[in-house]
Amino acid sequence: MAKVDAAAVTLGVSGETLMENAGAAVADIAARRWRDARRVLVLAGPGNNGGDGFVAARRLLAAGHEVRVALLGERAALKGDAAGAAARWDDGVVEPSDAPFDWAELVIDALFGAGLSRPLDGPAAALVMAANASGKPILAVDVPSGLDGASGRAVGPCVEADVTVTFIRRKPGHLLLPGRTLCGEVVVADIGQPDGALSAAKVAARLNRPELWRAAFPEPRIDGHKYSRGHVAVWSGPLLATGASRLAATAALRAGAGAVTLVGPRPALKIHAAHVTAVMLREADQKAGWAPFLADRRIGTWLFGPGAGTDEEACGILDQGFSAGGRAVLDADVFTIFGGRPEELGAAIEDGGCEAVLTPHEGEFARLMGERMRPDASKLERALAASALIGATVVLKGPDTVVATPDGCASIADNAPAFLATAGAGDVLAGICAGLLAQGMPAFEAASAAVWLHGEAAREAGRGMIADDLPLALRSVLGRLDDGPS
Ligand SMILES: NC(=O)C1=CN([C@@H]2O[C@H](COP(=O)(O)OP(=O)(O)OC[C@H]3O[C@@H](n4cnc5c(N)ncnc54)[C@H](OP(=O)(O)O)[C@@H]3O)[C@@H](O)[C@H]2O)[C@@H](O)CC1
Ligand SMILES: Nc1ncnc2c1ncn2[C@@H]1O[C@H](COP(=O)(O)OP(=O)(O)O)[C@@H](O)[C@H]1O
Ligand SMILES: [K+]
Protein backbone atom coordinates (compact mmCIF):
# COMPACT_ATOMS: atom_id res chain seq x y z
CA MET A 1 0.00 0.00 0.00
CA ALA A 2 2.98 2.29 0.53
CA LYS A 3 3.74 1.83 -3.19
CA VAL A 4 0.14 2.55 -4.14
CA ASP A 5 0.25 5.64 -1.96
CA ALA A 6 3.44 6.85 -3.62
CA ALA A 7 2.04 6.14 -7.10
CA ALA A 8 -1.13 8.07 -6.24
CA VAL A 9 0.95 11.09 -5.29
CA THR A 10 2.90 10.85 -8.55
CA LEU A 11 -0.41 10.70 -10.40
CA GLY A 12 -1.56 13.89 -8.75
CA VAL A 13 -3.56 12.85 -5.67
CA SER A 14 -1.77 14.03 -2.53
CA GLY A 15 -1.22 11.99 0.61
CA GLU A 16 -3.20 14.65 2.45
CA THR A 17 -6.22 14.04 0.19
CA LEU A 18 -5.95 10.27 0.64
CA MET A 19 -5.83 10.68 4.40
CA GLU A 20 -8.76 13.09 4.38
CA ASN A 21 -10.80 10.62 2.33
CA ALA A 22 -9.72 7.73 4.57
CA GLY A 23 -10.74 9.60 7.74
CA ALA A 24 -14.00 10.70 6.09
CA ALA A 25 -14.82 7.09 5.21
CA VAL A 26 -14.20 6.05 8.82
CA ALA A 27 -16.41 8.86 10.18
CA ASP A 28 -19.13 8.03 7.69
CA ILE A 29 -19.21 4.34 8.59
CA ALA A 30 -19.09 5.16 12.31
CA ALA A 31 -22.08 7.48 11.99
CA ARG A 32 -24.07 5.08 9.84
CA ARG A 33 -23.36 1.88 11.78
CA TRP A 34 -23.75 3.37 15.24
CA ARG A 35 -26.49 5.96 14.71
CA ASP A 36 -27.23 6.30 18.41
CA ALA A 37 -23.64 6.59 19.56
CA ARG A 38 -23.21 10.21 20.62
CA ARG A 39 -19.90 9.95 22.45
CA VAL A 40 -16.96 8.73 20.40
CA LEU A 41 -13.46 7.99 21.70
CA VAL A 42 -10.71 8.01 19.10
CA LEU A 43 -7.46 6.22 19.98
CA ALA A 44 -4.78 7.81 17.78
CA GLY A 45 -1.31 6.37 17.22
CA PRO A 46 2.01 7.98 16.25
CA GLY A 47 1.81 7.41 12.45
CA ASN A 48 -0.60 7.89 9.57
CA ASN A 49 -3.13 5.51 11.07
CA GLY A 50 -3.39 8.06 13.87
CA GLY A 51 -3.70 10.76 11.19
CA ASP A 52 -6.77 9.00 9.82
CA GLY A 53 -8.09 8.99 13.38
CA PHE A 54 -7.67 12.78 13.72
CA VAL A 55 -9.55 13.33 10.46
CA ALA A 56 -12.38 11.05 11.59
CA ALA A 57 -12.49 12.87 14.96
CA ARG A 58 -12.82 16.28 13.29
CA ARG A 59 -15.53 15.07 10.94
CA LEU A 60 -17.56 13.33 13.65
CA LEU A 61 -17.36 16.48 15.79
CA ALA A 62 -18.57 18.57 12.84
CA ALA A 63 -21.45 16.12 12.40
CA GLY A 64 -22.57 16.80 15.98
CA HIS A 65 -20.96 13.99 17.99
CA GLU A 66 -19.02 14.50 21.19
CA VAL A 67 -15.48 13.36 20.48
CA ARG A 68 -12.38 12.79 22.62
CA VAL A 69 -8.98 11.81 21.29
CA ALA A 70 -6.45 9.77 23.30
CA LEU A 71 -3.04 10.13 21.66
CA LEU A 72 -0.28 7.58 22.06
CA GLY A 73 2.95 9.62 21.92
CA GLU A 74 3.59 13.33 21.67
CA ARG A 75 1.52 15.61 19.48
CA ALA A 76 4.69 17.51 18.53
CA ALA A 77 6.31 14.27 17.36
CA LEU A 78 3.68 13.61 14.65
CA LYS A 79 5.06 13.91 11.13
CA GLY A 80 3.88 14.60 7.58
CA ASP A 81 0.20 14.13 6.79
CA ALA A 82 -0.52 12.92 10.32
CA ALA A 83 0.90 16.15 11.75
CA GLY A 84 -1.30 18.08 9.29
CA ALA A 85 -4.40 16.15 10.34
CA ALA A 86 -3.62 16.69 14.03
CA ALA A 87 -3.13 20.42 13.39
CA ARG A 88 -6.68 20.62 12.04
CA TRP A 89 -8.02 19.04 15.25
CA ASP A 90 -8.70 22.10 17.38
CA ASP A 91 -9.47 20.32 20.64
CA GLY A 92 -6.96 18.83 23.01
CA VAL A 93 -5.91 15.24 23.42
CA VAL A 94 -5.74 13.08 26.54
CA GLU A 95 -3.07 10.67 27.75
CA PRO A 96 -3.74 6.99 26.92
CA SER A 97 -4.04 6.23 30.64
CA ASP A 98 -6.88 8.79 30.83
CA ALA A 99 -8.80 7.44 27.82
CA PRO A 100 -12.47 7.72 28.88
CA PHE A 101 -13.72 4.25 27.97
CA ASP A 102 -16.60 4.42 30.47
CA TRP A 103 -17.83 7.64 28.88
CA ALA A 104 -17.58 6.39 25.29
CA GLU A 105 -20.34 4.75 23.30
CA LEU A 106 -18.04 3.92 20.38
CA VAL A 107 -14.27 3.48 20.23
CA ILE A 108 -12.34 4.15 17.04
CA ASP A 109 -9.04 2.31 16.95
CA ALA A 110 -6.56 4.40 14.92
CA LEU A 111 -3.42 3.32 16.79
CA PHE A 112 -1.47 1.24 14.25
CA GLY A 113 -2.14 0.16 10.70
CA ALA A 114 0.20 -0.86 7.94
CA GLY A 115 3.21 0.52 9.81
CA LEU A 116 3.14 -1.96 12.70
CA SER A 117 6.73 -3.10 12.96
CA ARG A 118 6.92 -5.13 16.18
CA PRO A 119 4.67 -6.59 18.89
CA LEU A 120 2.90 -4.00 21.01
CA ASP A 121 4.18 -3.50 24.53
CA GLY A 122 4.11 -0.84 27.26
CA PRO A 123 1.43 1.87 27.01
CA ALA A 124 0.34 0.72 23.51
CA ALA A 125 -0.35 -2.80 24.75
CA ALA A 126 -2.12 -1.45 27.85
CA LEU A 127 -4.36 0.77 25.71
CA VAL A 128 -5.29 -2.11 23.41
CA MET A 129 -6.12 -4.35 26.36
CA ALA A 130 -8.18 -1.58 27.97
CA ALA A 131 -10.13 -1.10 24.71
CA ASN A 132 -10.91 -4.82 24.52
CA ALA A 133 -11.85 -4.97 28.19
CA SER A 134 -14.15 -1.93 27.89
CA GLY A 135 -16.84 -3.95 26.16
CA LYS A 136 -17.58 -0.93 23.95
CA PRO A 137 -18.05 -1.39 20.19
CA ILE A 138 -14.78 -0.90 18.32
CA LEU A 139 -14.33 0.37 14.78
CA ALA A 140 -10.77 -0.30 13.59
CA VAL A 141 -9.05 1.85 11.02
CA ASP A 142 -7.31 -0.20 8.29
CA VAL A 143 -6.52 -3.17 10.59
CA PRO A 144 -7.20 -3.84 14.26
CA SER A 145 -4.10 -2.48 16.02
CA GLY A 146 -1.63 -5.26 16.75
CA LEU A 147 -2.59 -7.28 13.67
CA ASP A 148 -0.04 -7.75 10.90
CA GLY A 149 -1.98 -6.99 7.74
CA ALA A 150 0.35 -9.07 5.58
CA SER A 151 0.14 -12.32 7.53
CA GLY A 152 -3.04 -12.21 9.63
CA ARG A 153 -0.92 -12.80 12.72
CA ALA A 154 -1.15 -10.93 15.98
CA VAL A 155 2.18 -11.36 17.70
CA GLY A 156 1.25 -9.42 20.84
CA PRO A 157 -1.97 -7.88 22.18
CA CYS A 158 -4.42 -6.99 19.43
CA VAL A 159 -7.65 -5.04 19.19
CA GLU A 160 -10.74 -7.20 18.71
CA ALA A 161 -12.86 -5.07 16.39
CA ASP A 162 -16.54 -5.18 15.51
CA VAL A 163 -15.98 -3.50 12.15
CA THR A 164 -12.75 -2.74 10.29
CA VAL A 165 -12.62 -0.09 7.58
CA THR A 166 -9.76 -0.65 5.19
CA PHE A 167 -8.78 1.28 2.13
CA ILE A 168 -8.62 0.46 -1.58
CA ARG A 169 -8.29 -3.32 -1.16
CA ARG A 170 -8.48 -5.97 1.54
CA LYS A 171 -5.06 -7.08 2.77
CA PRO A 172 -4.18 -10.77 3.34
CA GLY A 173 -4.44 -10.24 7.10
CA HIS A 174 -8.14 -9.43 6.78
CA LEU A 175 -8.72 -12.94 5.43
CA LEU A 176 -6.08 -15.19 7.00
CA LEU A 177 -6.76 -16.44 10.51
CA PRO A 178 -6.68 -15.26 13.22
CA GLY A 179 -6.85 -11.87 11.46
CA ARG A 180 -10.28 -12.45 9.98
CA THR A 181 -11.82 -13.06 13.38
CA LEU A 182 -10.09 -10.02 14.93
CA CYS A 183 -11.40 -7.68 12.19
CA GLY A 184 -15.10 -8.33 12.62
CA GLU A 185 -16.90 -7.17 9.50
CA VAL A 186 -14.51 -5.71 6.92
CA VAL A 187 -15.58 -2.70 4.85
CA VAL A 188 -13.39 -1.63 1.93
CA ALA A 189 -13.53 2.11 1.26
CA ASP A 190 -12.52 3.89 -1.89
CA ILE A 191 -10.33 6.88 -0.99
CA GLY A 192 -10.06 8.51 -4.38
CA GLN A 193 -6.87 6.76 -5.45
CA PRO A 194 -6.30 7.52 -9.13
CA ASP A 195 -6.70 4.83 -11.78
CA GLY A 196 -3.36 3.23 -12.33
CA ALA A 197 -2.08 3.66 -8.77
CA LEU A 198 -2.89 0.04 -7.98
CA SER A 199 -0.72 -1.30 -10.77
CA ALA A 200 2.27 -0.04 -8.78
CA ALA A 201 1.79 -2.89 -6.33
CA LYS A 202 2.29 -6.57 -6.96
CA VAL A 203 -0.97 -8.15 -5.89
CA ALA A 204 0.02 -11.16 -3.81
CA ALA A 205 -3.39 -12.74 -3.51
CA ARG A 206 -7.01 -12.32 -4.40
CA LEU A 207 -10.19 -13.00 -2.54
CA ASN A 208 -11.68 -16.29 -3.77
CA ARG A 209 -14.94 -15.27 -5.41
CA PRO A 210 -16.56 -16.43 -8.67
CA GLU A 211 -15.27 -13.29 -10.47
CA LEU A 212 -11.81 -14.81 -10.10
CA TRP A 213 -12.54 -17.98 -12.08
CA ARG A 214 -16.02 -17.66 -13.58
CA ALA A 215 -14.74 -16.97 -17.10
CA ALA A 216 -12.79 -20.26 -17.07
CA PHE A 217 -15.64 -22.30 -15.60
CA PRO A 218 -16.60 -25.15 -17.94
CA GLU A 219 -19.86 -24.83 -19.82
CA PRO A 220 -21.40 -28.01 -21.26
CA ARG A 221 -21.42 -27.71 -25.05
CA ILE A 222 -24.56 -28.53 -26.97
CA ASP A 223 -22.52 -30.66 -29.34
CA GLY A 224 -20.55 -32.28 -26.50
CA HIS A 225 -20.71 -35.85 -25.17
CA LYS A 226 -19.68 -37.50 -21.95
CA TYR A 227 -16.09 -38.03 -22.98
CA SER A 228 -15.69 -34.45 -24.12
CA ARG A 229 -16.64 -33.45 -20.55
CA GLY A 230 -13.67 -35.35 -19.15
CA HIS A 231 -13.21 -38.73 -17.52
CA VAL A 232 -11.79 -38.98 -14.00
CA ALA A 233 -10.18 -42.13 -12.61
CA VAL A 234 -10.18 -42.36 -8.81
CA TRP A 235 -8.05 -44.95 -7.05
CA SER A 236 -10.14 -46.78 -4.44
CA GLY A 237 -8.96 -47.67 -0.98
CA PRO A 238 -8.95 -51.33 0.13
CA LEU A 239 -11.98 -53.29 1.40
CA LEU A 240 -12.39 -51.46 4.70
CA ALA A 241 -11.48 -47.97 3.44
CA THR A 242 -13.69 -47.31 0.44
CA GLY A 243 -15.73 -44.35 1.68
CA ALA A 244 -13.18 -41.60 1.05
CA SER A 245 -12.61 -42.47 -2.62
CA ARG A 246 -16.36 -42.89 -3.16
CA LEU A 247 -17.02 -39.40 -1.78
CA ALA A 248 -14.37 -38.01 -4.11
CA ALA A 249 -15.73 -39.88 -7.12
CA THR A 250 -19.31 -38.76 -6.49
CA ALA A 251 -18.17 -35.16 -6.08
CA ALA A 252 -16.18 -35.28 -9.34
CA LEU A 253 -19.30 -36.37 -11.17
CA ARG A 254 -21.43 -33.65 -9.54
CA ALA A 255 -18.81 -31.08 -10.49
CA GLY A 256 -19.56 -31.89 -14.09
CA ALA A 257 -17.06 -34.53 -15.19
CA GLY A 258 -18.59 -36.54 -18.02
CA ALA A 259 -17.58 -39.88 -16.52
CA VAL A 260 -15.95 -41.07 -13.32
CA THR A 261 -14.51 -44.50 -12.62
CA LEU A 262 -13.44 -45.95 -9.30
CA VAL A 263 -10.53 -48.28 -9.89
CA GLY A 264 -9.32 -50.84 -7.35
CA PRO A 265 -9.22 -54.42 -6.12
CA ARG A 266 -12.34 -56.58 -6.45
CA PRO A 267 -13.25 -56.80 -2.71
CA ALA A 268 -13.36 -53.00 -2.50
CA LEU A 269 -15.37 -52.71 -5.71
CA LYS A 270 -18.02 -55.01 -4.26
CA ILE A 271 -18.58 -52.49 -1.51
CA HIS A 272 -18.67 -49.61 -3.98
CA ALA A 273 -21.13 -51.53 -6.13
CA ALA A 274 -23.62 -51.50 -3.30
CA HIS A 275 -23.49 -47.69 -3.17
CA VAL A 276 -22.92 -46.11 -6.55
CA THR A 277 -24.76 -46.21 -9.83
CA ALA A 278 -23.58 -43.42 -12.14
CA VAL A 279 -19.99 -43.85 -11.01
CA MET A 280 -18.37 -46.73 -12.92
CA LEU A 281 -16.21 -49.46 -11.43
CA ARG A 282 -13.09 -51.01 -12.87
CA GLU A 283 -11.23 -53.87 -11.32
CA ALA A 284 -7.49 -53.55 -11.12
CA ASP A 285 -5.52 -56.63 -10.21
CA GLN A 286 -2.82 -56.20 -7.64
CA LYS A 287 0.03 -56.64 -10.10
CA ALA A 288 -0.92 -54.60 -13.15
CA GLY A 289 -2.63 -51.96 -11.02
CA TRP A 290 -4.34 -49.18 -12.94
CA ALA A 291 -1.63 -48.51 -15.51
CA PRO A 292 -3.55 -50.23 -18.35
CA PHE A 293 -6.68 -48.25 -17.48
CA LEU A 294 -4.89 -44.89 -17.26
CA ALA A 295 -3.38 -45.60 -20.67
CA ASP A 296 -6.83 -44.99 -22.19
CA ARG A 297 -6.38 -41.57 -23.77
CA ARG A 298 -9.89 -40.51 -22.77
CA ILE A 299 -8.83 -40.48 -19.13
CA GLY A 300 -7.04 -37.24 -18.68
CA THR A 301 -7.43 -36.84 -14.91
CA TRP A 302 -6.66 -39.13 -12.00
CA LEU A 303 -7.10 -38.75 -8.28
CA PHE A 304 -5.09 -40.60 -5.67
CA GLY A 305 -4.91 -40.37 -1.90
CA PRO A 306 -8.26 -40.62 -0.08
CA GLY A 307 -8.24 -43.95 1.76
CA ALA A 308 -5.46 -45.14 -0.53
CA GLY A 309 -3.05 -46.39 2.13
CA THR A 310 0.69 -45.96 2.33
CA ASP A 311 2.01 -49.50 1.87
CA GLU A 312 4.23 -50.69 -0.95
CA GLU A 313 1.27 -51.46 -3.19
CA ALA A 314 -0.16 -47.96 -2.72
CA CYS A 315 3.22 -46.44 -3.57
CA GLY A 316 3.35 -48.55 -6.73
CA ILE A 317 -0.12 -47.41 -7.78
CA LEU A 318 0.88 -43.78 -7.19
CA ASP A 319 3.99 -44.28 -9.35
CA GLN A 320 1.80 -45.64 -12.13
CA GLY A 321 -0.26 -42.49 -11.93
CA PHE A 322 2.80 -40.29 -12.34
CA SER A 323 3.92 -42.40 -15.31
CA ALA A 324 0.54 -41.90 -16.95
CA GLY A 325 0.98 -38.11 -16.86
CA GLY A 326 -2.15 -35.99 -17.32
CA ARG A 327 -3.88 -33.94 -14.63
CA ALA A 328 -3.62 -35.27 -11.10
CA VAL A 329 -5.25 -34.44 -7.80
CA LEU A 330 -3.07 -35.68 -4.95
CA ASP A 331 -4.54 -35.81 -1.47
CA ALA A 332 -4.38 -37.44 1.94
CA ASP A 333 -2.02 -40.45 1.98
CA VAL A 334 0.21 -38.94 -0.72
CA PHE A 335 1.52 -36.54 1.93
CA THR A 336 2.46 -39.43 4.19
CA ILE A 337 4.10 -41.35 1.35
CA PHE A 338 6.16 -38.27 0.47
CA GLY A 339 6.45 -37.06 4.08
CA GLY A 340 9.52 -34.82 4.45
CA ARG A 341 10.37 -35.32 0.75
CA PRO A 342 8.61 -32.54 -1.16
CA GLU A 343 11.47 -32.27 -3.68
CA GLU A 344 11.00 -35.94 -4.59
CA LEU A 345 7.27 -35.40 -5.01
CA GLY A 346 8.11 -32.47 -7.30
CA ALA A 347 10.50 -34.64 -9.30
CA ALA A 348 7.89 -37.41 -9.71
CA ILE A 349 5.33 -34.87 -10.93
CA GLU A 350 7.82 -33.33 -13.34
CA ASP A 351 9.15 -36.67 -14.66
CA GLY A 352 5.61 -37.82 -15.36
CA GLY A 353 4.77 -34.54 -17.08
CA CYS A 354 1.75 -34.17 -14.79
CA GLU A 355 -0.21 -31.05 -14.01
CA ALA A 356 -0.83 -31.62 -10.31
CA VAL A 357 -3.03 -30.11 -7.64
CA LEU A 358 -2.16 -30.97 -4.03
CA THR A 359 -4.83 -30.62 -1.36
CA PRO A 360 -3.21 -30.92 2.10
CA HIS A 361 -4.68 -29.70 5.38
CA GLU A 362 -2.24 -28.06 7.79
CA GLY A 363 -1.21 -31.36 9.40
CA GLU A 364 -0.53 -33.00 6.06
CA PHE A 365 1.28 -29.90 4.85
CA ALA A 366 3.59 -30.00 7.86
CA ARG A 367 4.21 -33.72 7.33
CA LEU A 368 5.04 -33.19 3.66
CA MET A 369 7.24 -30.12 4.08
CA GLY A 370 9.15 -31.19 7.20
CA GLU A 371 11.39 -28.40 8.46
CA ARG A 372 11.50 -26.42 5.26
CA MET A 373 9.23 -23.51 6.22
CA ARG A 374 10.29 -20.40 8.12
CA PRO A 375 8.39 -20.59 11.41
CA ASP A 376 7.11 -17.02 11.01
CA ALA A 377 5.93 -17.48 7.40
CA SER A 378 2.25 -16.73 6.84
CA LYS A 379 -0.15 -19.30 5.43
CA LEU A 380 -0.04 -17.42 2.12
CA GLU A 381 3.76 -17.46 2.03
CA ARG A 382 3.90 -21.14 2.97
CA ALA A 383 1.46 -22.18 0.26
CA LEU A 384 3.33 -20.12 -2.35
CA ALA A 385 6.72 -21.47 -1.26
CA ALA A 386 5.55 -25.10 -1.32
CA SER A 387 3.92 -24.60 -4.70
CA ALA A 388 7.10 -23.15 -6.18
CA LEU A 389 9.26 -25.89 -4.64
CA ILE A 390 7.09 -28.77 -5.84
CA GLY A 391 5.94 -27.30 -9.13
CA ALA A 392 2.26 -27.97 -8.44
CA THR A 393 -0.81 -26.00 -7.47
CA VAL A 394 -1.17 -26.19 -3.69
CA VAL A 395 -4.52 -25.98 -1.90
CA LEU A 396 -3.67 -25.40 1.76
CA LYS A 397 -6.99 -26.14 3.44
CA GLY A 398 -8.69 -24.73 6.51
CA PRO A 399 -11.14 -21.94 7.33
CA ASP A 400 -8.97 -19.63 5.19
CA THR A 401 -8.01 -22.02 2.38
CA VAL A 402 -5.19 -20.68 0.23
CA VAL A 403 -4.68 -21.80 -3.38
CA ALA A 404 -1.18 -21.05 -4.68
CA THR A 405 0.56 -21.68 -7.98
CA PRO A 406 4.27 -21.96 -8.84
CA ASP A 407 4.14 -18.67 -10.75
CA GLY A 408 2.94 -16.79 -7.69
CA CYS A 409 -0.84 -16.55 -8.11
CA ALA A 410 -2.90 -17.05 -4.98
CA SER A 411 -6.47 -16.94 -3.77
CA ILE A 412 -7.78 -16.88 -0.21
CA ALA A 413 -11.26 -18.15 0.64
CA ASP A 414 -13.48 -16.83 3.41
CA ASN A 415 -16.78 -18.57 2.69
CA ALA A 416 -16.41 -21.98 4.36
CA PRO A 417 -18.65 -22.37 7.43
CA ALA A 418 -16.99 -23.81 10.53
CA PHE A 419 -19.20 -26.90 10.40
CA LEU A 420 -17.49 -27.93 7.15
CA ALA A 421 -14.67 -29.31 9.31
CA THR A 422 -16.00 -32.86 9.31
CA ALA A 423 -14.64 -36.24 8.26
CA GLY A 424 -14.65 -36.75 4.51
CA ALA A 425 -15.15 -33.11 3.58
CA GLY A 426 -11.62 -32.97 2.20
CA ASP A 427 -12.26 -36.01 -0.01
CA VAL A 428 -15.22 -34.20 -1.53
CA LEU A 429 -13.06 -31.15 -2.21
CA ALA A 430 -10.45 -33.27 -3.98
CA GLY A 431 -13.21 -34.80 -6.10
CA ILE A 432 -14.71 -31.43 -7.10
CA CYS A 433 -11.27 -30.26 -8.08
CA ALA A 434 -10.65 -33.37 -10.22
CA GLY A 435 -14.06 -32.95 -11.85
CA LEU A 436 -13.26 -29.38 -12.89
CA LEU A 437 -9.73 -30.21 -14.07
CA ALA A 438 -11.14 -33.03 -16.20
CA GLN A 439 -13.29 -30.50 -18.01
CA GLY A 440 -10.20 -28.57 -18.99
CA MET A 441 -10.33 -25.81 -16.42
CA PRO A 442 -6.79 -24.52 -15.69
CA ALA A 443 -5.37 -25.65 -12.34
CA PHE A 444 -5.48 -22.35 -10.42
CA GLU A 445 -9.02 -21.58 -11.53
CA ALA A 446 -10.17 -25.18 -11.00
CA ALA A 447 -8.72 -25.36 -7.50
CA SER A 448 -10.07 -21.93 -6.51
CA ALA A 449 -13.51 -22.73 -7.92
CA ALA A 450 -13.53 -26.10 -6.14
CA VAL A 451 -12.73 -24.45 -2.81
CA TRP A 452 -15.43 -21.81 -3.21
CA LEU A 453 -18.09 -24.27 -4.42
CA HIS A 454 -17.22 -26.61 -1.55
CA GLY A 455 -17.76 -23.83 1.00
CA GLU A 456 -21.03 -22.77 -0.64
CA ALA A 457 -22.24 -26.38 -0.79
CA ALA A 458 -21.67 -26.63 2.95
CA ARG A 459 -23.70 -23.45 3.52
CA GLU A 460 -26.39 -24.81 1.28
CA ALA A 461 -26.50 -28.12 3.18
CA GLY A 462 -26.55 -26.23 6.48
CA ARG A 463 -25.66 -27.22 10.01
CA GLY A 464 -25.81 -30.91 10.66
CA MET A 465 -24.39 -31.62 7.23
CA ILE A 466 -22.03 -34.52 6.70
CA ALA A 467 -19.60 -34.99 3.84
CA ASP A 468 -22.08 -37.28 2.04
CA ASP A 469 -24.48 -34.31 1.71
CA LEU A 470 -22.01 -32.02 -0.07
CA PRO A 471 -22.04 -33.48 -3.59
CA LEU A 472 -25.84 -33.16 -3.86
CA ALA A 473 -25.77 -29.64 -2.39
CA LEU A 474 -23.48 -28.65 -5.26
CA ARG A 475 -26.49 -28.77 -7.57
CA SER A 476 -28.13 -25.65 -6.24
CA VAL A 477 -24.81 -23.84 -5.89
CA LEU A 478 -24.03 -24.55 -9.55
CA GLY A 479 -27.53 -23.47 -10.46
CA ARG A 480 -26.99 -20.10 -8.79
CA LEU A 481 -23.68 -19.72 -10.59
CA ASP A 482 -25.65 -19.78 -13.83
CA ASP A 483 -27.82 -16.92 -12.58
CA GLY A 484 -24.83 -14.57 -12.74
CA PRO A 485 -22.45 -12.94 -10.26
CA SER A 486 -23.19 -13.52 -6.58
N1 LIG B 1 -2.88 4.11 0.61
C1 LIG B 1 -3.23 3.84 1.85
O1 LIG B 1 -3.42 2.67 2.17
C2 LIG B 1 -3.40 4.91 2.85
C3 LIG B 1 -3.08 4.67 4.18
N2 LIG B 1 -3.36 5.52 5.16
C4 LIG B 1 -3.14 5.18 6.55
O2 LIG B 1 -1.77 5.13 6.84
C5 LIG B 1 -1.51 3.98 7.65
C6 LIG B 1 -0.08 3.59 7.59
O3 LIG B 1 0.62 4.65 8.19
P1 LIG B 1 2.13 4.50 8.69
O4 LIG B 1 2.93 3.89 7.62
O5 LIG B 1 2.52 5.81 9.19
O6 LIG B 1 2.01 3.43 9.85
P2 LIG B 1 1.15 3.34 11.22
O7 LIG B 1 0.43 2.07 11.17
O8 LIG B 1 0.39 4.57 11.49
O9 LIG B 1 2.28 3.15 12.34
C7 LIG B 1 3.54 3.75 12.22
C8 LIG B 1 3.99 4.32 13.54
O10 LIG B 1 3.82 3.37 14.57
C9 LIG B 1 5.07 3.10 15.19
N3 LIG B 1 5.08 1.70 15.58
C10 LIG B 1 5.02 0.62 14.79
N4 LIG B 1 4.92 -0.51 15.51
C11 LIG B 1 4.93 -0.11 16.81
C12 LIG B 1 4.85 -0.82 18.03
N5 LIG B 1 4.72 -2.15 18.08
N6 LIG B 1 4.87 -0.13 19.18
C13 LIG B 1 4.98 1.20 19.15
N7 LIG B 1 5.06 1.92 18.00
C14 LIG B 1 5.02 1.28 16.86
C15 LIG B 1 6.08 3.46 14.15
O11 LIG B 1 7.26 3.75 14.80
P3 LIG B 1 8.66 3.07 14.34
O12 LIG B 1 8.38 1.69 13.84
O13 LIG B 1 9.17 3.97 13.28
O14 LIG B 1 9.44 3.07 15.59
C16 LIG B 1 5.43 4.67 13.52
O15 LIG B 1 5.61 5.80 14.32
C17 LIG B 1 -2.47 2.97 7.10
O16 LIG B 1 -2.65 1.89 7.96
C18 LIG B 1 -3.71 3.81 6.90
O17 LIG B 1 -4.43 3.90 8.12
C19 LIG B 1 -4.19 6.69 4.84
O18 LIG B 1 -3.91 7.74 5.67
C20 LIG B 1 -4.03 7.19 3.44
C21 LIG B 1 -3.93 6.20 2.39
N1 LIG C 1 -12.66 -24.27 10.85
C1 LIG C 1 -12.99 -24.52 9.58
N2 LIG C 1 -13.89 -23.73 8.96
C2 LIG C 1 -14.26 -23.98 7.68
N3 LIG C 1 -13.78 -25.00 6.95
C3 LIG C 1 -12.86 -25.81 7.50
C4 LIG C 1 -12.42 -25.61 8.84
N4 LIG C 1 -11.52 -26.57 9.12
C5 LIG C 1 -11.41 -27.34 8.01
N5 LIG C 1 -12.22 -26.89 7.04
C6 LIG C 1 -12.40 -27.48 5.70
O1 LIG C 1 -12.93 -28.81 5.85
C7 LIG C 1 -12.32 -29.70 4.94
C8 LIG C 1 -11.65 -30.82 5.76
O2 LIG C 1 -10.78 -31.54 4.97
P1 LIG C 1 -9.81 -32.67 5.57
O3 LIG C 1 -9.18 -32.16 6.80
O4 LIG C 1 -8.96 -33.14 4.47
O5 LIG C 1 -10.85 -33.78 5.98
P2 LIG C 1 -10.98 -35.30 5.52
O6 LIG C 1 -9.58 -35.82 5.33
O7 LIG C 1 -11.69 -35.98 6.65
O8 LIG C 1 -11.76 -35.31 4.26
C9 LIG C 1 -11.34 -28.87 4.12
O9 LIG C 1 -11.93 -28.48 2.92
C10 LIG C 1 -11.09 -27.66 5.00
O10 LIG C 1 -10.77 -26.52 4.24
K1 LIG D 1 -5.88 0.48 13.60
TrEMBL record:
Function: Catalyzes the dehydration of the S-form of NAD(P)HX at the expense of ADP, which is converted to AMP. Together with NAD(P)HX epimerase, which catalyzes the epimerization of the S- and R-forms, the enzyme allows the repair of both epimers of NAD(P)HX, a damaged form of NAD(P)H that is a result of enzymatic or heat-dependent hydration.
Cofactor, how bound (note): Binds 1 potassium ion per subunit.
PANTHER family: ATP-DEPENDENT (S)-NAD(P)H-HYDRATE DEHYDRATASE, ATP-DEPENDENT (S)-NAD(P)H-HYDRATE DEHYDRATASE FAMILY MEMBER
Keywords from the named record: ATP-binding, Isomerase, Lyase, Metal-binding, Multifunctional enzyme, NAD, NADP, Nucleotide-binding, Potassium
Entry-linked CDD domains: YXKO-related
Organism: Chelatococcus sambhunathii
Gene Ontology MF, one: NAD(P)HX epimerase activity
Subunit structure, interactors included: Homotetramer.
Catalytic reaction list: (6S)-NADHX + ADP = AMP + phosphate + NADH + H(+); (6S)-NADPHX + ADP = AMP + phosphate + NADPH + H(+); (6R)-NADPHX = (6S)-NADPHX; (6R)-NADHX = (6S)-NADHX
Family recorded in the similarity comment: Belongs to the NnrD/CARKD family.
Binding site for (6S)-NADPHX: 48-52, 113-119, 142, 244, 307, 361, 427
Lineage: Bacteria, Pseudomonadati, Pseudomonadota, Alphaproteobacteria, Hyphomicrobiales
HAMAP family, sorted: NADHX_dehydratase, NADHX_epimerase
Residues annotated for AMP binding in this entry: K397, G398, P399, D400, T401, G426
A family per Pfam: Carb_kinase
Protein name: Bifunctional NAD(P)H-hydrate repair enzyme
Alphabetical list of NCBIfam families matching this protein: yjeF_cterm, yjeF_nterm
This protein's record includes keyword DNA repair: no
Gene3D superfamilies: 3.40.1190.20, YjeF N-terminal domain (3.40.50.10260)
Sequence ranges assigned to domain YjeF C-terminal in this UniProt record: 209-481
